[in-house]
Specification:
Layout: H1 9-16, E1 35-39, H2 44-56, E2 59-66, H3 88-103, E3 107-111, H4 113-129, H5 136-155, E4 160-162, E5 168-172, E6 175-179, H6 197-200, E7 203-204, H7 212-221, H8 244-249, E8 257-261, E9 267-271, E10 294-300, E11 305-310, E12 318-329, E13 340-344, E14 352-359, E15 362-372, E16 379-384, E17 387-399, E18 402-403, H9 404-412
Parallel strand pairs: 1-2, 1-4, 2-3, 4-7, 8-11
Antiparallel strand pairs: 5-6, 6-17, 8-9, 10-11, 12-15, 12-17, 13-14, 13-16, 14-15, 16-17, 17-18
Helix pairs in contact: 2-3, 2-7, 4-5
């Protein structure tokens, strides 16, 4: 029987319920003896993850994490929910409670507001001040879900944690490798590249073998009405939907400056704050007096200048190598890195074949076929087939042996002709 033909949850369970995979860091092998703390967010993925674990026989407790306080954190500008009678985070909690009640599971509530501010949001702001664009979801997994939440679970007598991420793990020689999910369209290993092997070795990923449409169908059959039709979160991790430019202005005040044509060094317009723009961005530039279309090629934070080029000069986006630093390798000691592997410089990007030269927690990656809009401050995540090897921060980007963004700065400032 195909899963689409299942008429009820019992038939769906027979077709789709995966065999329990017990990570290498858990000494107990009988699911009924393993106490699992699952992060229940109020979304459909973690809800179905809870059902899978329960049906597999694990001793499951759910936990809702509160990580953001809009009033304490001055989250005013750009916040569409200030006047709502129930804030989205509280609604998520109520939805999570409804799921836990339906499944007959206990729901705890834990507060990581300070940890989120100190370890995630403050880092996020410091990177933006440098003109870089960090990924808050990666920081959130690194410091909250697989650090603060993980240690909370271990300190309270749980054997393992679980999440609704689309990924899986595989143990070999007492080491836990991070592996892509069956649903490659939803695979989230990119966001877990900074997670240490220790928490991975004690984490269950119940959705690793399921597809998103299957998860939705299971939620409908279980009548998890609070989440079954709920749209996926696309906002900032644990903060939610925001007008991003207005939101950042709460913490990084806007400072107007010149938008400069990279080719002619002509001032085209004024920007609203160089920190608010991303490399390759085309919308929201408000260049009306000069024929485009235009895209952001670079920015000079010190001079407060935004450099743009017309779309027929997209070569300014191209690079052929990059320096990656602060890499978290999810591989055992003595691992032989493949000379040729693949990398993602952005989440939705297709894998890019690269030649890899590793030096401890740094690496130089070469991609002679070139790639567009590889951006300092974002994450490069490495793969060897189905396995995620880890990831690090893009520190410098090169074309030939020349620093691309230094070349752009010099060109925009009229310091070179190339």
């Amino acid at each position: 029987m195909e899963w689409k033909e299942a008429a009820n949850i019992e038939e769906m369970e027979q077709v789709l319920l995966p065999q329990p995979l017990i990570p290498s860091g858990i000494s107990k092998k009988n699911p009924e003896e393993i106490k699992v703390l699952l992060g229940l967010s109020g979304g459909v993925d973690s809800a179905v993850a809870a059902w899978v674990l329960k049906e597999q026989g694990f001793d499951v407790t759910c936990c809702f994490m509160r990580n953001w306080d809009s009033f304490a954190n001055n989250d005013v500008a750009g916040n569409p929910d200030l006047l709502n009678s129930v804030c989205p985070q509280e609604q998520d909690y109520q939805d999570a409670q409804a799921v836990a009640d339906k499944l007959g599971l206990e729901l705890l509530r834990v507060d990581f507001v300070r940890e989120y501010w100190d370890d995630v949001f403050s880092v996020f702001l410091k990177e933006y001040e440098k003109g870089r664009t960090p990924n808050p979801d990666i920081l959130c997994n690194q410091f909250i879900k697989f650090d603060a939440f993980y240690h909370f679970a271990m300190d309270h007598g749980f054997d393992a944690i679980a999440t609704g991420h689309y990924c899986s793990s595989q143990a070999a020689d007492d080491f836990t490798f991070l592996r892509r999910a069956a649903d490659l369209n939803k695979d989230q290993t990119y966001f877990l590249a900074q997670v240490d092997e220790e928490p991975l070795s004690k984490t269950l990923f119940p959705l690793g073998s399921l597809l998103k449409p299957q998860v939705r169908k299971i939620a409908q059959m279980l009548e998890l009405d609070s989440v079954s039709a709920k749209k996926d979160s696309t906002g900032i991790c644990f903060i939610g939907e925001r007008n991003f430019r207005q939101f950042l202005s709460n913490y990084l005040p806007a400072k107007e400056g010149d938008i400069v044509d990279l080719e002619s060094q002509t001032i085209l317009a004024r920007h609203q704050g160089v920190l608010y723009y991303t490399i390759g961005q085309r919308k929201g530039l408000n260049i009306t007096a000069h024929k485009g279309p235009w895209f952001v090629a670079g920015k000079d934070v010190a001079a407060n200048r935004l450099y743009v080029a017309r779309t027929d000069h997209r070569e300014w986006l191209d690079s052929d190598s990059a320096l990656i630093e602060n890499i978290n390798w999810i591989v055992p000691e003595g691992y032989r890195f493949p000379e040729n592997c693949t990398v993602k410089f952005r989440y939705r990007q297709k894998d890019i074949p690269v030649k890899l030269e590793v030096d401890g927690t740094s690496a130089r990656v070469y991609y002679p076929q070139k790639s567009a809009a590889v951006t300092p401050g974002q994450e490069a995540v490495f793969y060897d087939g189905e396995f995620c090897l880890g990831g690090g921060v893009i520190e410098k980007v090169f074309i030939g042996e020349e620093d691309l963004f230094e070349k752009i700065r010099k060109k925009g400032a009229g310091e070179c002709n190339g």
